């Protein structure tokens, strides 16, 4: 049976939707996931981007919390090693759907600044050619990715067609010739009744959106102080989770990964090359500013009982704050140099109290701003 050049697909997105990636190995599945992401943007979902901290089932994690408490839908994207350059590319791919009403949260990790940004394997995972083509349609993002691919090309060889066309300086004529030939080949195959390769097919994808009725009245009187107490009680309950004896990390983590010992002597982040991540942050903030979007950036912390020389991150964190202020972005700084029980669950990932602090800031930033 000859494949159609245009395939009709039907799918749905839930109120609380999480994607680790767009599905790098399945072209058709990737088109469906991208359509879901675009539908979430178009339908005013709360968007949360980040890395390994998003892999959690905590009751106060924003997507679970806002969906359950206030019937506000949310879309979460990312897992380990998805960093600021990834966020820029992903958002650039849906640039036309972003508005000044877009509600965007980006969780930032201090560890991102210790080396070059976005590991090559993460780039390959999140930006297959069809996604990369959308991401670099914007001239600003195109320049950033052109420089990035030029820098890492030896680590991702052999380069794909899309990657080769972005090598700095890019060959625009070759690129348009390549795209035109793809369209002509697809048209010729259909005209002759032949099979069209799946990666050249067009998908008309309809996404069913759940009906939501945001409970703004409930949010206006929500007891955040009680939520913070509930979050702490959840983490401390029955001594199963964390205590002073475990350095305020989960006991299972303490025993398995820390040798049941509280010490920061052998653990230090060396910020050898933070410049690339800072550049990516500025490009992302600039991109959002041009779209009149005021996103909420959150700097998560480290546990000072297990990391030494915490103050060495201060100059970088100060630059982060300066960049975000320059482009009129919101910034919640949770990089504490003293222990804050229940803010983290291990040495670097958010606990329920940390998520409640973020939830409250999300509510004030995007939903209660008229009440301030």
Would you mind describing this structure in some detail?
With 372 residues, this protein is an alpha/beta fold. The protein has one domain. The protein is built from 14 helices and eight strands. The strands form two sheets. It has a six-stranded parallel sheet, with helices on both faces. A two-stranded parallel sheet has the order 1-6. α13 links the parallel β7 and β8. The N and C termini lie far apart (61 Å). The N terminus is likely disordered.
Annotation keywords:
single chain, 372 residues, six-stranded parallel sheet, two-stranded parallel ribbon, 14 helices, 43% helix, globular, disordered N terminus
Principal-axes geometry comes out as globular
Which spans have pLDDT < 50 for at least 5 consecutive residues?
1-6
CA radius of gyration is 22 Å
Q: How many strand segments?
A: 8
Helix content bin: 40-55%
The total count of helices amounts to 14
Spatial gap, N to C terminus: 61 Å
Strand content: 5-15%
Question: Secondary-structure element sequence?
Answer: EEHEHEHEHHHHHEHHHHEHEH
Helix-and-strand structural type: alpha/beta
Mean of residue pLDDT values? 88
Briefly say what this structure is:
This protein is α/β, with parallel strands linked by helices.
């Amino acid at each position: 049976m000859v494949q159609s050049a245009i395939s009709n697909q039907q799918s749905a997105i839930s109120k609380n939707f999480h994607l680790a990636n767009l599905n790098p190995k399945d072209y058709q599945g990737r088109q469906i996931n991208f359509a879901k992401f675009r539908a979430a943007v178009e339908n005013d979902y709360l968007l949360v981007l980040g890395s390994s901290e998003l892999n959690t089932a905590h009751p106060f994690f924003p997507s679970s919390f806002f969906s359950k408490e206030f019937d506000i839908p949310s879309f979460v994207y990312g897992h380990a090693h998805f960093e600021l350059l990834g966020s820029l590319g992903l958002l650039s791919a849906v640039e036309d759907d972003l508005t000044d009403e877009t509600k965007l949260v980006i969780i930032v990790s201090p560890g991102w600044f210790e080396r070059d940004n976005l590991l090559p394997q993460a780039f390959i995972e999140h930006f297959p050619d069809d996604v990369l083509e959308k991401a670099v349609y914007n001239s600003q993002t195109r320049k950033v990715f052109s420089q990035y691919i030029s820098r890492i090309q030896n680590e991702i060889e052999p380069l794909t067609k899309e990657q080769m066309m972005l090598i700095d300086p890019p060959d625009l004529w070759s690129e348009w010739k390549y795209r035109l030939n793809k369209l002509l080949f697809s048209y010729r195959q259909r005209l002759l009744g032949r099979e069209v390769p799946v990666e050249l097919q067009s998908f008309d994808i309809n996404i069913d959106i759940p009906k939501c009725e945001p409970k703004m009245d409930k949010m206006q009187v929500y007891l955040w102080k009680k939520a913070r107490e509930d979050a702490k009680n959840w983490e401390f309950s029955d001594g199963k989770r964390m205590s002073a004896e475990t350095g305020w990390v989960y006991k299972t983590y303490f025993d398995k990964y820390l040798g049941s010992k509280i010490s920061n002597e052998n653990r230090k982040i060396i910020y050898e090359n933070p410049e690339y991540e800072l550049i990516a942050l500025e490009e992302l903030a600039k991109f959002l500013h041009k779209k009149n979007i005021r996103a909420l950036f959150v700097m998560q912390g480290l546990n000072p009982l297990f990391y030494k020389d915490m103050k060495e991150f201060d100059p970088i964190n100060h630059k982060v704050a300066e960049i975000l202020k320059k482009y009129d972005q919101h910034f919640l700084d949770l990089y504490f140099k003293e222990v804050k029980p229940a803010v983290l669950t291990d040495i670097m990932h958010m606990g329920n109290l940390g998520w409640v602090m973020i939830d409250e800031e999300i509510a004030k930033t995007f939903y209660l701003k008229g009440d301030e």
